[in-house]
Amino acid sequence: MSLYHDYRPVKFSEIIGNEATIKTIQNKIHGTDPPKAIILHGPRGCGKTTVARIISEELGCDTKSLDYVELDAVQTGGIDTAREIRQNMHYLPNNSKCRVWVIDEAQDSSSKFQAGLLKALESGPDHCYFILCTTDLNKIISTVKSRCTQWKFNLLDDSKIEQLLNWVIKSEERKFEKDVIEEIIKEAEGCPREALVILDTIFDLEPKEMIDAIQNSEMAKEVKELCQGMLRGDDWNKLRTIIKGLKGVDPERARQAIIYYMQAVALNNPSQAGQAALVFDCFKETVFYTGMPGISFAAYNTTL
Predict the structure, then answer these.
(1) Looking at the structure, do residues 253 and 276 belong to the same domain, yes or no?
(2) Is residue 8 part of a domain?
(3) Residue 178 shares a structural domain with residue 77
(4) In a domain, 36, yes or no
(5) What is the distance between the alpha carbons of residues 67 and 154, in angstroms, rounded to a whole number?
(6) CA 40 remoteness from chain centre
(7) Which of 44, 247, 273, 303 is the 20 to 30 Å CA partner of 60?
(8) Does the CA dihedral 245-249-255-259 come out positive or negative?
(9) Whole-model pTM?
(10) Is residue 6 part of a domain?
């Protein structure tokens, strides 16, 4: 697992930053009338989905049970999904006190999907809660926004990112030079997820290599995300979104990074060796002449 997943907060007390917002949420959901419909909005990587999961647990919904549903609006934000939610919300919880639907990347859902949720948001059963997470509040239709309690999340200042990094490094029983920490903070630009992704990419490097790796971390982050997506067996819609972020990257360097990543997975994680070998096979040919189209079609072949 990546550092970002290993150190993802599982309770409010573990969250660093956005303290006033977190306190307000705690007070509200533990009050006599917690909101049935919530919008969490703010930049990517600032913890909205993580907070949605914590809210769900605090409301009494086991996020590992069938009572918790997390939907990616990029893939499922259509009218049929809204209709299915309206039909299923009348069923009582299986193992929890309530049922929760989290709509991630809600800004990418269709207006028909959002309109189809209106009745559920306004007059759903008492045991149902809805949490929409979005990076663009303007893309949520006004009738949905008017039915939801809204909380905004902000990127963290440098001191909070430093606090997060120092906590993770100490927990991992490692030491990093101050200039390395400062470079990570600079590259993360206030995003806690980015800070941990960058830390993850340099964790096993020699100290003298770390600064250069951080400064080239944009490619490293995107390539690692692409590798993890291919190992999970993500569909083409998810992979192409990642590939679009590889602008300005040397395609052959990216290809070599992918095959070395797959070698490391095969050697250290036997359960994923088969999928790693499949990805390796798709990327074994050089892309000196085909460039980014070669990367794109090799990635597409992993979905077949």
Answers:
(1) yes
(2) no
(3) no
(4) yes
(5) 29
(6) 14
(7) 44
(8) negative
(9) 0.71
(10) no
Are residues 248 and 143 located together in one domain of the fold?
no
Sign for the CA dihedral angle at 163, 166, 172, 173 comes to negative
Cα separation, 274 vs 278, whole angstroms: 6
Residue 239 in tokens: 């992979």
Q: Are residues 28 and 148 in the same domain?
A: yes
pLDDT tens across 59-113, in order? 999 999 999 999 988 767 678 888 999 999 999 999 999 999 999 989 888 889 9
Cα 132 to the center of its chain, rounded Å: 14
Q: Which of 193, 215, 237 is the last residue of a domain?
A: 215
- The letter for the amino acid at 236 is W
What are 205-236's pLDDT values in tens digits?
887 788 877 766 656 677 888 998 999 899 99
Number of domains in the chain: 3
Residues 148, 35: contact at Cβ < 8 Å? Answer: yes
> The tokens 């990347």 sit on which residue?
105
3-class DSSP state of 131? strand
Which strand ranges, in their side-by-side order, compose the sheet holding 99-104? Answer: 68-72, 99-104, 128-134, 37-41, 149-152
Q: Does residue 111 sit in the same domain as residue 168?
A: no
